[in-house]
Amino acid sequence: MKTLPLEVPHMNEAEAEDVFGWILDGEASDEEIGRFLLAMTERSETAEEIAGAARALRARLIPIAAPENAIDVCGTGGDGHHTLNVSTAVSLVVAASGVPVAKHGNRAASSKSGAADTLEALGLDMDVAGATAEKTLAELGICFLFAKNHHPAMGRIQPIRQRLGKRTIFNLMGPLSNPAGVKSQLIGIARPAYVPIYAAAKAALGTKRTMIVSGDEGLDELSLAGGNEVADVQGSEFEMKRVDASLAGLPHAPVEAIRGDDAAHNAAALKALLDGSPGPYRDAVIFNAAASLIVAGMATDWAEGAAQAREALDSGKAKALLQSWIAMTQ
């Protein structure tokens, strides 16, 4: 067994990879791990530590084969706003636009309904969807990668995280450890001031193109309410930008306009969206889909990305994709 230090020092990337390798391999006690994680959270994790921890998790994951141009759309969660499932809807819209989406996620942790919960309420058999992820990604251009199926090392860590009841570095490691090895992503985080730190971690890990985004009110996706902090990461470099909905030709709306509830409520809202319902939920999905299509190289700017997202919704392609996906899990 390893002994984690009582005083948690700042670690470089290699040191963090070693330490989190011990943690993931069960070479430290539950009590030590919990104390260590809380201490890191209290002093704030550095970019080097996030990158090193993500490398340790990546080294232990179970991968799947994926198209070269596959992307992921996800958030770190924990923003406390309990919105409708924006990234889930975005995944359907983007996949219907011709970009394979390997959605990496789980059931609700801090929200009332996570992506898996809402998709299940819509009729998707999540156990089958998880088991057939590689097949549906190849044949339909979309899949759901259940974290529990691909990160067995997390099995021991999960109860520790639940006992702590607070955000830890593990919330930040997940989006950087997609089992499909995606080279482009849209990642939402709940702390605007932390965007450049997280972007530096992503840049250290390398990417074709990724946007790290956070709404000014602490939303872990692009917000319609006002401004957004955005880090545009390409290769090992990133550029900070300020973005708002007007760039995509969309109106502003308060976060309350897309407030969600339980799985049944969120599923009904997503179904209505795919059936053509207008309003802030649709606008939020179009805004985030536009960003996803930009990072995927399908759109050159926000207006073009928004137009493509609208077409995927209005043509019925996104709805048909979900129906095909559900049919494959029956």
Automatic annotation (TrEMBL):
GO cellular component, one term: cytosol
InterPro entries registered for this protein in UniProt: Anthranilate_Pribosyl_Tfrase, Glycosyl_Trfase_fam3, Glycosyl_Trfase_fam3_N_dom, Glycosyl_Trfase_fam3_N_dom_sf, Nuc_phospho_transferase
Recorded GO MF terms: anthranilate phosphoribosyltransferase activity; magnesium ion binding
The protein's required cofactors: Mg(2+)
Cofactor note as given: Binds 2 magnesium ions per monomer.
Gene3D superfamilies listed in its UniProt record: Nucleoside phosphorylase/phosphoribosyltransferase catalytic domain, Transferase, Pyrimidine Nucleoside Phosphorylase, Chain C
Residue positions binding anthranilate 1: 75, 106
An annotated GO BP: L-tryptophan biosynthetic process
Catalytic activity: N-(5-phospho-beta-D-ribosyl)anthranilate + diphosphate = 5-phospho-alpha-D-ribose 1-diphosphate + anthranilate
Ranges where the Glycosyl transferase family 3 N-terminal domain occurs: 11-60
Residues holding Mg(2+) 2: 220-221
Residues that bind anthranilate 2: 161
Sites where the protein binds Mg(2+) 1: 87, 221
EC numbers, comma separated: 2.4.2.18
Pathway: Amino-acid biosynthesis; L-tryptophan biosynthesis; L-tryptophan from chorismate: step 2/5
One Pfam family recorded for the sequence: Glycos_trans_3N
Binding residue positions for 5-phospho-alpha-D-ribose 1-diphosphate: 75, 78-79, 83, 85-88, 103-111, 115
Family to which this protein belongs: Belongs to the anthranilate phosphoribosyltransferase family.
Assembly and binders: Homodimer.
Cross-referenced HAMAP family: TrpD (MF_00211)
Function description: Catalyzes the transfer of the phosphoribosyl group of 5-phosphorylribose-1-pyrophosphate (PRPP) to anthranilate to yield N-(5'-phosphoribosyl)-anthranilate (PRA).
Identification of the protein by name: Anthranilate phosphoribosyltransferase
Source organism per UniProt: Pontixanthobacter aquaemixtae
